[in-house]
Design goal:
alpha+beta; four-stranded mixed beta sheet; about 90 residues
Length: about 90
């Protein structure tokens, strides 16, 4: 399956490096599932992540940035729901 990821980020807030790091993490984790990952600069405090056109994270709605394990989980749920993320799937007791 070929999946497309988009990360929309605010240039005014200087979130490009954070977005690029998250993109790198997603590409490393889902190297066989992701065929395209796009960074989309914006403004107004935007930080949203889309997987195959479905918004999976919104900083505005969540009130925060995702932890990288959270982001991998929500992306996985769209691009490869049957896949285990190993230690990233473990819940704290």
């Amino acid at each position: 399956m070929s999946s497309r990821i988009e990360i929309h980020y605010c240039t005014q807030c200087r979130w490009m490096l954070r977005s690029a790091w998250m993109a790198q993490e997603l590409l490393s984790t889902f190297e066989d599932e992701i065929t395209e990952l796009t960074l989309k600069p914006g403004s107004g405090g935007v930080f949203e992540v889309y997987a195959d056109g479905q918004r999976v994270w919104s900083r505005k709605e969540a009130g925060r940035f995702p932890e990288i394990t959270e982001l991998k989980q929500v992306v996985r749920d769209v691009v490869s729901p049957e896949r285990s993320l190993g230690h990233a799937d473990r819940k704290d007791a």
